[in-house]
């Protein structure tokens, strides 16, 4: 089933897991954010040694991936398989190879959580993607248009419990652009220099290193 990034993060916080996740899109910030939660919060530190595997698409085949997915966890309730840059897995453009993925997605091992992170938008009409929806979740992540960036900055700050002025939002949006990972990083750096209950103003942003001259 398709789900939003926030919905998936809420499910993970509640320890509600599905056997297959396909994270795809041209906005890597969200895909990386979800994968970070999987890497750090799903399995206990004791279980990670034998039951958590982080793979890269260029280093595996579909057969290798499925051999990992079909193994049983070792002295644990579940295992976690994360594939980063899954678009580089050889054979994803051939029906002969993706048929094996389809079969697994329709009958996944209940003790395996398989997470595939793609750095590109997939065609959700493809058979293997549609098969993943039956028992798992598809999470699209599209790059935001420039006119949506100010709202994103305001929302990010709101979730952090800090106020931000309209001019500060404008400065960040026009100086950094729609690179959400960098935007989040800049805001986090600014938060480090704030005093308790201080608002992010244009002066604070300038102190952080962005000039206010063009906004006078």
User: Order of helices and strands, N to C?
Assistant: HEHHEHEHEHEHHHH
List the strand order in the largest sheet: 2-3-4-1-5
Count of alpha/pi helices: 10
Distance between the termini: 48 Å
Query: What fraction strand?
Result: 5-15%
Structural class: alpha/beta
Spans of at least 5 consecutive residues with low confidence: 211-216
Please state the overall shape, judged from the principal axes of the Cα atoms.
elongated
C-alpha Rg (nearest Å) = 20 Å
> Can you count the beta strands?
5
Mean pLDDT: 92
User: Can you give the helix content as a percent range?
Assistant: 40-55%
The biggest sheet, with number of strands, parallel, antiparallel or mixed sense and barrel status, is: 5 strands, parallel
What order do the helices and strands come in, and which of them pair?
Blueprint: H1 5-13, E1 20-24, H2 28-42, H3 45-51, E2 52-56, H4 62-69, E3 79-84, H5 95-106, E4 112-117, H6 127-135, E5 137-140, H7 149-159, H8 166-176, H9 180-193, H10 202-208
Helix pairs in contact: 1-2, 5-6, 7-8, 8-10
Structure description:
The protein is an alpha/beta fold and 216 residues long. It contains ten helices and five strands, in the order αβααβαβαβαβαααα. The protein has a five-stranded parallel sheet with strand order 2-3-4-1-5, sandwiched between helices.
């Amino acid at each position: 089933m398709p789900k939003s990034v926030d919905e998936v993060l809420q499910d993970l916080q509640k320890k509600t897991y599905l056997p297959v996740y396909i994270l795809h899109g041209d906005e890597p910030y969200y895909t990386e954010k979800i994968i970070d939660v999987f890497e750090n919060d799903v399995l206990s530190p004791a279980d990670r040694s034998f039951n958590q595997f982080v793979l890269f698409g260029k280093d595996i085949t579909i057969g290798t991936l499925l051999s990992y997915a079909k193994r049983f966890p070792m002295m644990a309730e579940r295992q976690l398989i994360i594939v980063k840059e899954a678009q580089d897995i050889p054979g994803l453009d051939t029906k002969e190879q993706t048929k094996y993925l389809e079969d697994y997605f329709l009958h996944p091992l209940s003790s395996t959580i398989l997470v595939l992170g793609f750095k590109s938008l997939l065609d959700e009409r493809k058979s293997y993607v549609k098969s993943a929806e039956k028992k798992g979740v598809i999470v699209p992540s599209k790059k935001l248009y420039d006119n949506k960036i100010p709202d994103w900055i305001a929302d990010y700050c709101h979730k952090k419990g800090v106020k931000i002025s309209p001019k500060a939002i404008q400065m960040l949006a026009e100086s950094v652009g729609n690179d959400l990972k960098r935007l989040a990083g800049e805001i986090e750096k600014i938060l480090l220099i704030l005093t308790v209950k201080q608002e992010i103003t244009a002066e604070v942003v300038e102190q952080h290193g962005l000039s206010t001259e063009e906004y006078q």
